[in-house]
Design brief:
single chain, 557 residues, alpha+beta, six-stranded antiparallel sheet, 18 strands
Length: 557
């Protein structure tokens, strides 16, 4: 698997044309170093060159590294994210002897002059003062810089790590934006960085607490992974190509950590989780042109992206994340079967992350019960099938107030959800006013069931039962009159239209060799509205009735 990680790094670099790289260099020379995409690009080049790949870029790499090592010790330029990458690259070059001693000595000397207290953006006011995830990046960067330069960075690293441990919930998950927002990317990445810090040799006074935190969150992290190998939806920086390489790094680090503790079972499960995420990452990288976001819109449109999530910064982040996996992946660990592949469970996060996951029969669903309306919506926001397209049904819901670019404005928040008629008005289970409570759940090896109440108003409560099996996803509604379902049907990925077929008791969408069919017992609306999310455009129908069946198949088989 390790060789595949270099393949991913090379494919990420291949997405940058020579012209784009040249323009990027000229931009930084003109405006100065301002963010971390540029150093990450240079580090990726240097690492690949050290392993005998893309050696024709040596002169370009030296030009980029000269700029980075000269400017990073002088300016705040998102160094929290960059110093680790640059220092890891220099360590490898020193080991492989790919550049002259004089050049390496100059770069190391420049990095040794870096003042962490002044030049990282996120420095905690005190060890007991909470601060966001950038501080964890800074802690790791500074520890790695200390190893490269032979500097004692203990005080700074311990200071930062202490502030980060304050953010963990009862499951050990990282709360980056409490009390309710807590994006899923920024749960996983700080914990991945904690694991990396341990693997890189951190033995400071918080090492044991990090280990305990990682142990406490192992099960739920494995079970949050989709059957397609993807991290949960939710919040900022989600649905980017770099998400799964981040998950790969986390899983490889945990596989190695558990193997060193003698826990063969956990090591094998994490190794299998990394393998599943690697498969999905390579699938995305095989698409042409390669995009940093999970849709097929032209990257110039910025659709699916927050303002900061532009190509130059986020495309190379996939390589940055995957190198952490490469460094500590142990291919002597045999992947077994991850919980995501095995299924047969229902699991919920703490209320801080407001998610419930069901996995059985090759199907996986993710329910959101207290959404951040700037990114998500309440209700059923994800339905995935093993070995099938992640888009053909739904991967992420539709926000009402998006903090990222959409093709057009959404009429409201939306998901696969219930509705109820109330005085001529439709009340949606996707709305942020809808209140969900989990009543019961159970799972066997072959099925998983969860029952929720959804309060749509003071007087209307809809009971919802979700059941997964190898036959698909079944949802039944009860408890109120004049109720039904809202059905988002995939229509367009930014470049390709689906084939949508409507019949009396079903509606289906065929996409890229996969077919998603919604079957129901009621009446489908004659018209629909368009809704938009990070992945593309959807037709949203309503269907009056109490029963919905969702099935996804591979039509190519």
């Amino acid at each position: 698997m390790k060789e595949q990680y270099l393949d991913i790094m090379e494919k990420a670099l291949d997405a940058y044309t020579d012209e784009r790289i040249r323009d990027y260099i000229d931009e930084v020379k003109r405006d100065g170093l301002t963010e971390h995409g540029f150093p990450r690009l240079g580090a990726d080049m240097g690492i690949l060159i050290a392993y005998g790949r893309r050696t024709e870029l040596m002169d370009t790499f030296i030009e980029i590294m000269d700029i980075c090592c000269e400017q990073i010790p002088k300016h705040k330029a998102a160094n929290d994210f960059s110093v680790r990458e640059v220092c890891c690259c220099l360590m490898l070059l020193e080991q492989k002897k790919n550049v002259s001693d004089e050049l390496l000595s100059k770069w190391k000397g420049q990095m040794a002059s870096f003042d962490p207290w002044k030049l990282y953006n996120a420095v905690a006011v005190s060890p007991d003062t909470p601060i966001g995830n950038w501080a964890m990046f800074a802690a790791v960067s500074e520890f790695v810089r200390g190893v490269l330069c032979g500097i004692d960075t203990t005080e700074f690293v311990d200071w930062q790590v202490s502030s980060q441990l304050l953010a963990l919930d009862s499951n050990g998950m990282y709360q980056d934006d409490p009390p309710i927002k807590n994006p899923m990317v920024y749960d996983i990445v700080p914990r991945q960085l904690m694991a990396f810090l341990l693997m890189f040799g951190y033995k400071g006074k918080y090492a044991e607490r990090i280990e305990q935190a990682l142990d406490s969150t192992a099960e739920i992290t494995l079970k949050m992974q989709s059957v397609t190998g993807e991290i949960p939806f939710g919040g900022r920086s989600n649905q980017f190509l770099n998400n799964e390489p981040m998950e790969i790094a986390y899983s490889e680090l945990e596989a190695t950590r558990y193997a060193r503790k003698g826990d063969v079972k956990s090591a094998g499960e994490f190794k299998a989780s990394a393998k599943l995420a690697t498969k999905k990452t390579l699938e995305y990288l095989e698409l042409e042109p390669i995009s940093h976001v999970k849709n097929r819109y032209d990257i110039k449109t910025h659709i699916g992206c927050e303002d900061y999530g532009y190509f130059n910064k986020y495309m190379i982040t996939a390589a940055s994340n995957i190198y952490m996996a490469y460094l500590f992946a142990d291919d002597s660990i045999i992947p077994t079967v991850s919980p995501a592949e095995k299924g047969g469970y229902v699991i919920s996060t703490s209320d801080n992350f407001h998610k419930t996951f069901l996995n059985a029969g090759g199907y996986f669903i993710e329910l959101e019960t207290h959404a951040d309306s700037h990114y998500d919506a309440n209700g059923l926001g994800r339905v995935h099938k093993k070995d099938c397209s992640s888009f053909v049904c739904l991967s992420v819901p539709f926000p009402s107030q998006p903090n990222y670019t959409l093709e057009k404005e959404n009429p409201s928040a939306m998901s696969i959800c219930c509705y109820a008629e109330n005085g001529g008005e439709l009340l949606f289970g996707a709305d942020d006013k809808a209140e969900y409570s989990l009543l019961s759940s159970e799972a066997t090896a072959d099925t998983a069931t969860a029952v929720f109440n959804c309060n749509l108003s003071d007087s209307i409560t809809v009971k919802q039962k979700y059941t997964l099996s190898e036959n698909g996803v079944d949802i039944t509604l009860s408890g109120a009159d004049n109720i039904g379902f809202m059905l988002p049907v995939f229509d367009f990925d930014g470049a390709n239209n689906t084939v949508v077929t409507v019949s009396e008791k079903s509606v289906s969408s065929e996409y890229s060799g996969f077919l998603c069919t919604y079957g129901f017992d009621g009446c489908l609306s004659a018209d629909y509205k368009y809704y938009y999310n990070r992945n593309g455009r959807y037709r949203v129908y309503s269907v009056k009735g109490n029963y919905l069946h969702i099935a996804i198949i591979n039509t190519a088989k």
